[in-house]
Every structure is written in structure tokens, then in C-alpha cells.
Amino acid sequence: xxxxxxxxxxxxGKLSTGKRNAITxxxxxxxxxxxxxxxxxxxxxxxxxxHEGNLFQEKVPAASHVINGFGKTAGSIQIEELGTLETPVIxxxxxxxxxxxxxxxxxxxERNEEIGRETGTVNAVVGECNDMILNDIRRRTIRREHIHxxxxxxxxxxxxxxxGAGRGMVCYSLKGGIGSASRILPIGSxxxxxxxxxxxxxxxxxxxxxxxxxxxxxxxxxxxxxxEKDKGSVMIVVATDLPVTDRQLQRIIKRSxxxxxxxxxxxxxxxxxxxxxxxxxYNIPAKPSSVHMIPTIHEEEIDIAFxxxxxxxxEAVLQSLFCAETVTGRDGNIRRSIxxxxxxxxxxxxxxx
Length: 353
Description:
Elements lengths: L3 H4 L22 E9 L2 E9 L8 E12 L6 H7 L1 E2 L3 E5 L3 H15 L13 E5 L14 H9 L17 E2 L2 E2 L2 E10 L2 E12 L13 H9 L9 E8 L5 H9 L1 H7 L9 E8 L4 E2 L17 H20 L4 E2 L5 E2 L2 H11 L5
Parallel strand pairs: 5-6, 11-12
Antiparallel strand pairs: 1-2, 2-5, 3-4, 3-12, 3-13, 7-8, 9-10, 10-11, 14-15
């Protein structure tokens, strides 16, 4: 985890970042990876943990939003209906969703003996992107132990780029993957935090924009790059400690599309673009009580959260590019890192990389 984008003099937006400039700036949130990187197998798992307690017993308010629905996300229907999240959010490849759901159910059952006895069942939340260009997805290499490993490794500090679920992903025809960023939200006399983690697997090179500059168009012309049809996807996970209802949270995560568009995203027909968000400001107990009080901000104070999620999403997408290394995968397919391409471009212009 690092501020790779900012090392190149790119400063996205107007709001201040959190200490790590990552989703884990939100108190309690942790991220873990399990990476598979050998030959034709270039894939993995990423786990986002909202808090260290028992999530099934202490649910968090949550929302989901479908930007374009060409995706296979599990668990979003119940989030939409009930407005709560009760498991870690798992990201992996498309064919790993079923295995991940099983693993999350195992994980939750081990910690909650009453499930299926005194209570109902559990809603496992799993998001995906298709990494078939670099990964032999037909081999279905994701196993339950990989999901458990990612959860166990969850920490405040985590890798970005070609790691975890991002190992085999392709973004703007370059190597994509995991990216993250955060923004501080001053409201009244208190500062809140909003953090974003993206799994990027979308876009074509010529559409890429960096800090308003049509960099992808320039590189496409320089390299006479082969045009690729955008069939990709992106998963956006938003965390905040802002006291909001699930309805307010959905309004916030909808604005993540602004950050995507600023990087050049066209939201193509074949793209599964899904946002999932949660707040750690309060818990919702599994057992009912007569009255459950929920603290919320006033609607007139929500604009800064709209700006924060847009800025953090834009930077998280760029982070996924700038943190990734070149990867050779299935059948010798190669996707180069943006830093390698940038260095070559500077050298060709007689500048220092």
C-alpha cells in the first residue's frame, strides 16, 4: 500500500486524504489478499472486513448500486432489501463466486451456532470480475481455503495492484487490479472518513484520462496499439464512518460513477459495474429490540460525501494501475504496467523517467 499515483505528481481532487490514503483509514476496516500467480493461473481473492467483531451479530448499514448489471455479484439483493451487511465482502474471479459464497457461509457458521436453528440463514456477499485474459479461468483454481486465507490476512496495511482478486485483471488495456484511496469529510466540528477500494477490469487504452489529460490517446498513438473492445468490469467497495442510513449510503455510492468517468470509463454493454457500500458509524444487532435508534447526518450535509466518494474512486482506479507490475499469464498473454509505459514515453521524448 502506498501513494504511487502521487509520486508522479498527480493529485486528484480537492479534499484531504486519510493517513494511508486507503479504505482502511476508516476505523475498524481491514483488507486481506490471497494471490495465485503461477503460469496460466493468475488470480486470487480479496477480503474487506468492516469491523473486528462478529458481523452476523453486529451488522452494519449497507447499500448496493448497479451501474451496469453484466455481473455475477452474490448477496446484493438482500443488501438492497434490508440495508445491512453481515459478512465480509469478498472479491474474486467470476467462476470463484460459488466457492467464495460457500467459504463465507462456513466462516460465519463456525462463529454463530444459532444460524439455521434459532435464526435464519446468512447472506454472503461476493463480487467478481472476469480475469480470463491473464488467468485460465476454466481451471477454477479458487478454493475455500483461499477465501479463509484472505480473511485471516486482513490488516490495515495491504497491497495494491496485481494482488489478490486483482492479480489477473486488465484495466484500460494495461495491468489493473486492486486500488484504494480515502478522503476526509469535515462536517461541523468533526472529521469523518470515506474510503474506496476498486477491483478494476475495464476500459481501452485510448479512453484513459489521468488528471484530466488524455494520456491514453497519446500512448495509443505512440504505440499504434491494437484496439480492444471494452468487455470489462469494476467492483467498487465504499466504507465510511459517517453516520448515515442505508438510503443515504446508496445516494453516496451512486456518485462513484463520477470517479469512474473521470478516468475515461464508458460503462460498456459487457461491463459489470457494481458498487457496495457500508458505514461503521453504528451496528444493527441481530436480535430485535423494541426501538433501535439510528444517528444520521442531515441531508443538507451530504454533498461533501458525494465529492469524497467521487475523488476517492478516481484515485483508487489510478492506484490500481500505478501499483501494478507487468504480468504474463494464460497462453503467454501479457499486460504491461502503466509505469513501464510511462517510462518508455518519457525516454522517447528525451525526459527523465
